[in-house]
Amino acid sequence: MKVIFLLILVSLVVALGFLAAFIWAVRSGQYDDDYTPSVRMLLDDEPTTNDKTAN
Amino acid sequence: MAQVDKFSYDNGIVRLFTYATIIFGLIGILVGLTIALQLVFPQLNFGIAEVTYGRLRPLHTNAAIFAFVGNGIFAGVYYSLQRLLKAPMYSKFLSQFHFWGWQAIILAAAVTLPLGITSSKEYAELEWPIDLAIAVVWVAFGINMFGTILKRRENHLYVAIWFYIATWVTVTMLHIGNNLELPVNMWKSYGVFAGVQDALVQWWYGHNAVAFFLTTPYLGLMYYFLPKAANRPVYSYRLSIIHFWALIFIYIWAGPHHLLYTSLPDWAQSLGTVFSVMLIAPSWGGMLNGLLTLRGAWDRVRQDPVLKFMVVAITAYGMATFEGPMLSVKSVNAISHYTDWTIGHVHIGTLGWNGFFTFGLLYWLIPRMWNTNLYSQKLANAHFWIGTLGILFYAVPLYWAGWTQSLMWKQFTADGFLQYGNFLETVTQIKPMYAMRSVGGTLYMVGYLVMMYNLFKTIGAGKFAAYEDAEAPARVTYVAHKGEHWHKWIERSPVQMLVVSLVAVAIGGIIEILPMVFVDKNVPKIESVRPYTPLELEGRDLYIREGCVGCHSQMVRPFRSETERYGEYSKSGEFIYDRPFLWGSKRTGPDLHREGGKYSDSWHYNHMYDPESMSPGSIMPPYPWLHKRDLNTKYTAAKIKTLRTLGTPYEVGYEQIALDDLRAQAKKIAAGLAKDGIKLEGIENKEIIAMIAYLQRLGTDIKPKSQANQ
Predict the structure, then answer these.
(1) What is the mean pLDDT of residues B394-403?
(2) What angle do CA B272, B277, B280 make, to 5 degrees?
(3) Does B523 touch chain A if contact means CB atoms closer than 8 Å?
(4) Does the CB of B522 have a partner CB in chain A at under 8 Å?
């Protein structure tokens, strides 16, 4: 059953990794704006010279 | 104004993955339908070893999970990642390498699994050379993805990308953790963990394969393709962020709920239950976020088949993630485990959530990439209804079968005897439900064929452009505060940093802890439990080759209904030499942990040759090839050596005399059979002898004498 310690450790490492990623994300301003990203992703940047219609 | 970059998205790689998704979806369904029919008509394997149920079942699960859903993930990720980051993929070579490597792995699986080359650990059946190949291809995908993230023109990482990152990181860890094995030869290995430990690691992997292969990447796809298809932003971006972090933190702990009431220590079981119940919150948060995205657009759901498929997919996700926590409650699990309830549950997930979402994605993606309209909305609608009916006809009979059978297993008469003492009675009772289930599967496949026709017509009418031009301003990088140079460094290459630090920490942790696991003196040992004899060991490897674990558990739970039926409940100390563990997760046939000594050798001989000769009405396929083929003893010595390296106490040098022991035991069994009138030229060399030796050994180490003598 000692393997549970390995699993807990590895899981904690991943969880801590995710926590570090979360802290990085918050501190680097990833989540300063929690509305416009959801709208921005709807807009694809078509080349201005290309007259293809959207969608 | 900032400088505007001109670049183009690689649609060619998306096309390749799209084709692969469509083809492997059909294959996965076909194999699934075949084994579903084999449960009703066991003769459907035509006496061919390679297509028996036990060997095809892992082929079906691997095809559905890694070939169909896997290629679907990659198609969706390669399409959305480029657009969300406003950058083409980091490396065209790595994209191609990823695609062809992944298909080669699928091909290798399709060849090795029917040949019986398997580790028998669910969803991790592939043997070690293929495991290595998976690792290489997966790393190539990772480098390509993170490289693209680093080259991005969009500073903000949209929530979908977070889901992709979590998928990559966690699957890497799980794949390595569950495939730590020592090769015997090119196509056989033994895992470093045995018995209870192996079971725990396997289900830590197995559950999170569901979590991080079938769920998180698809949630990422949901957060991209659903808003795109509905042309409106996700209901709450804030909720999506909370959904993401909460889900990944909790999911990783839920594995032990696959081992409730087994020999796994209670506290580990409770840990699994608690986290599984908590999971409902983030799961339903995600489901609601998806469904509420369509608020005010429900009229379009009525019109647009893409949205229809996605809505049913998300609803199926909600149902499965409600059911999951419920099944993790011990009192519910006592009824549901080992029955078809579990099979119904996972198919709501795969057919409903993964399948339907993939269909929605394909109906949306293909017209866009081929610059045309969908060939027929009508056919897409037809597919939707046939598919939905298919899921219902599939799942409902299985729920019914699960409850029926479980209640029959547990039913006692007024006098305190098992009402259905013969296991077979509980199987024949649910055979009609198995037949109904294949009807559901057939419907689902018909819908799929309609989709294939519709999509290929669309492709035929359209014009594909391998590169789609786009333009976007270059990324304005975040400027760090002065005087904090370590911080500044993190900000300059955050993703690199994240990955490197994770890898570093993980390696450190593994190096520190692994020796502790290997030098394990803490498993509750039972004095009378001995390693397998060479013949039993070879028999066990045949049991693994034939995939017996697909239908037979080896874990008697501590319920009166089980100890009455099978014998003494299983103890963790009995499994310390089991590499891999063979507890199983489904009882299509009875549990075999206390099989040893229950029947005579000749009963097993005849039963394996033709199960119906001993149990009329049995749906177990015959295994006549065991009676024809000679046992391969070429690797017996190597197996003994490998197992000793892993900790099984075979004496040094035993491998040199192992074959003598093997032959002596085989002769004894052959002589016993001869006494019962079973004579066959060279019978003592046949595989069936090893199989009998193993079956007769099962669970006898601690069997009380009074029972053994009965």
Answers:
(1) 96
(2) 130
(3) yes
(4) yes
Out of A15, A24, A35, the one facing B237 most closely (by C-beta) is A35
> What is the mean predicted confidence (pLDDT) over B613-641?
95
Query: Residues B374-380: contacts with CB within 8 Å, 24+ apart?
Result: B374/B305, B374/B454, B374/B458, B375/B454, B375/B455, B375/B457, B375/B458, B375/B461, B376/B454, B376/B457, B377/B305, B379/B450, B379/B451, B379/B453, B379/B454, B380/B305, B380/B306, B380/B451, B380/B454
Interface test with A, best of B149, B179, B252 (most A CBs within 10 A): B252
The beta-carbon neighbor of A28 closest among B237, B469, B478 is B478
| Cβ contact B472:A48 at 8 Å | no
Task: Report the candidate in B500, B503, B496, B498 with the shortest Cα–Cα distance to residue B173.
Answer: B503
Buried b (16+ CB within 10 A) or exposed e, B367-387: bebbebebbbeebbebbbebb
CA angle B325, B330, B336 (to 5 degrees): 80
What is the rounded CA–CA span in Å between residue B122 and residue B549? Answer: 10
The residue type of B331 is S
Residue whose pair of structure tokens reads 């994605």 in the numeric block: B361
Backbone angles phi, psi at B305, to 5 degrees: -60, -30
Q: Each residue's pLDDT tens digit in chain A (55 positions)? A: 677 777 778 778 888 888 888 888 888 888 888 888 888 888 876 666 544 444 4
pLDDT mean across residues, chain B: 91
ipTM of the complex: 0.73
Q: Which of B108, B96, B98 is nearest to B139 (CA)?
A: B98
Cβ atoms of B21 and B71 within 8 Å: the answer is: yes
Distance CA B221, CA B226 (A): 8
Ordered domains of chain B (ranges, CATH):
4-463 (1.20.210.10), 534-708 (1.10.760.10)
What angle do the packed helices B159-178 and B128-150 form, to 10 degrees? 160
- The rounded Cα B649 to chain-centroid distance in angstroms is 32
Q: Which residues of A touch B207 (CB under 8 A)?
A: none
B574 within 8 A of B526, measured Cβ to Cβ: yes
Helix-strand-coil percent breakdown of chain B, rounded to 5?
70, 5, 30
Which residue of B225, B502, B572, B575 is the best one to mutate when testing the A interface, meaning the one whose CB has the most A CBs within 10 A? Answer: B502
Distance from CA of B296 to the nearest CA of A (A): 16
The pLDDT score that the predictor gives to residue B306 is: 97
Residue B66: closest CA among B193, B175, B223? B175
Burial of A34 (0-12, 13-18, 19+ CB in 10 A): middle
The reply to whether residue A21 touches residue B572, judged by beta carbons under 8 angstroms, is no
Token pair recorded at residue B132? 């290595």
Mean pLDDT, to the nearest integer, of B22-37?
97
Which residues of chain A make contact with B490, given a CB cutoff of 8 A?
Answer: 24
Paired residues of B586 in beta bridges: B338
Instruction: Kindly report, residue by residue over B159-175, the tens digit of the pLDDT.
Output: 999 999 999 988 998 89
